[in-house]
Write a structure and sequence with these properties.
Elements (H helix, E strand, L loop, with lengths): L3 H33 L5 H27 L8 H25 L5 H8 L2 H11 L8 H17 L7 H26 L8 H29 L10 H31 L2 H23 L5 H26 L2 H5 L3 H7 L7 H7 L10
Helix pairs in contact: 1-9, 1-10, 2-3, 2-8, 2-9, 3-7, 3-8, 4-7, 4-10, 5-7, 6-11, 9-10, 10-11
Length: about 350
């Protein structure tokens, strides 16, 4: 049993990590929506973000290596292309489609549709046998699907094209996080640190999105007065600055998301995500003027009920495994560790020993 001081420190740390995640997650959602009102090149914006994330990750890796005196992990080409590439491709398609959808839909519809990623994560977790099937999952699927239908039913700000983009992004997001879990659980790769994971993902993400950018935005961007045909220095600096700020927010989001999962659990991230969606919808209605009917709000509540049930079921079924998890040694636990599905009870068994591992 942890003493009260340790419990309090752990609680304060968790709340701090959640708030840190909220700042970047909610901030980049509103920032990208605002930027897309005047800058209609979401794929180019995503490429700039990937470049900034890679540069910041490389700089952070160098700083960590200098401070610790230990070399950072560097994958060989075989592992990089065969094990990292699928995760990178799924991640960039998820992010690219999500940013693209901001040209068509409101933040409230985006937030609601994106929350269905839980369904697809659950689906692919069952396919890859990372989640154990149980009959209550049918109720979870019906609640989330029914809530999404009610939210989009007779919506005054509904856009089919943007809705399909976000739904497709949610589907790919299910593949993305399942592959990310498989990638991070491989101890031999050494990608448990979020900075190392982000560093290795960005180049392949850039290469995967670049052909789609050339096809959809290449010519129009070259003839746009926002960048290449700009007549004055002021607008060019403004465009570059706004893109750079978005890139910094994207880096903060990726780092805070991986950090929250690594230092707590995917269960904490799921619970935090529920309240984050509530905050996002309330801010969208307040700041952006998104209009939502009573049926839309009821649909949102139904969907959140399904997500909450899923989180509750994960908590309940993990309790039965807590005793056996505590008997694992740290080495055994490291080999079997599933960073995106790690249970709260498992962490208590070796949390003190891994305290310095991830952020040293």
């Amino acid at each position: 049993m942890a003493c009260p001081v340790q419990f309090l420190c752990r609680a304060v740390r968790t709340v701090g990590l959640v708030l840190f995640y909220y700042v970047f997650s909610i901030g980049i959602t509103f920032y990208n929506k605002w930027l897309m009102k005047g800058f209609h090149f979401p794929l180019f914006m995503t490429l700039v973000h990937l470049t900034i994330i890679f540069c910041l990750s490389a700089f952070t890796r160098c700083a960590l290596q200098y401070c610790s005196g230990k070399p950072r992990v560097m994958l060989n080409w075989s592992d990089y292309l065969y094990k990292v590439a699928p995760t990178a491709l799924a991640t960039v398609l998820d992010i690219g489609l999500s940013n693209w959808s901001f040209l068509f839909i409101t933040i409230s519809l985006y937030t609601m549709t994106k929350s269905t990623a839980v369904l697809f994560i659950l689906l692919f977790s069952l396919v890859f046998k990372l989640e154990e099937p149980n009959p209550f999952l049918i109720v979870v699927v019906l609640l989330i699907s029914g809530g999404l239908f009610m939210f989009t039913y007779e919506s005054t700000q509904f856009n089919l094209e943007g809705f399909i983009m976000v739904l497709l992004a949610s589907f790919i997001g299910g593949i993305r996080w399942t592959l990310t879990q498989v990638l991070m659980q491989k101890a031999e790769l050494g990608l448990q640190n979020p900075i190392d994971t982000m560093y290795h993902l960005q180049p392949l993400m850039f290469l995967g999105l670049f052909p789609l950018f050339l096809y959809n935005e290449g010519l129009s961007l070259c003839t746009s007065e926002k960048l290449f045909r700009v007549s004055e220095l002021g607008p060019l600096l403004y465009s570059l600055t706004t893109l750079a700020v978005g890139g910094a927010l994207a880096f903060g989001l990726g780092f805070s998301e991986f950090l929250l999962v690594s230092r707590t659990s995917s269960l904490t991230l799921s619970i935090a995500g529920i309240f984050k969606e509530v905050c996002t919808l309330l801010l969208a209605a307040r700041i952006m003027g998104d209009r939502m009917t009573l049926v839309n709000w009821l649909g949102f509540v139904v969907c959140l009920s399904g997500i909450s049930l899923h989180v509750g079921l994960k908590t309940y079924y993990s309790k039965g495994k807590a005793h056996s998890a505590r008997q694992l040694s740290y080495k055994e636990g490291a080999e079997m560790e599933l960073p995106l599905l790690r249970r709260e009870e498992e962490e208590e068994a070796y949390e003190e020993e891994e305290e310095q591992e991830i952020l040293h």
